[in-house]
C-alpha cells in the first residue's frame, strides 16, 4: 500500500530543507556558546600586573601577558615599550593593548 504524500507529516518527513535565517541563527548560537567569560581580577592581582609591566618597561625585561579574547587563549610576549595611563593602554613590540584585557602577567628573568 502506497502512502499519500500529503498524509500526516509525509511531505515534511523527507525534507531536510533549512531556511537561511534559521541556519544563520544556529551558526550564531554555536559561536556565542564558545565565548569565554571575562576574568574578574582583585586588587592584589592588579598590583602584581602593574609591577610586572613597570619592571618590563624600566628594566627592559621580557613580559608574558595573558590577555582576554572571547574565543581563544591569547598570550602576548615581549618588552613593554610605552604606557599610556590616560588611555589605559600599553605598547608591546609596537602594538597597543588595553589594560582592562590583561588577565595575568609574569616577568621572565
UniProtKB/TrEMBL annotation:
A Pfam match: YolD
InterPro entries attached to this UniProt entry: YolD
Protein name: YolD-like family protein
Organism: Paenibacillus thailandensis
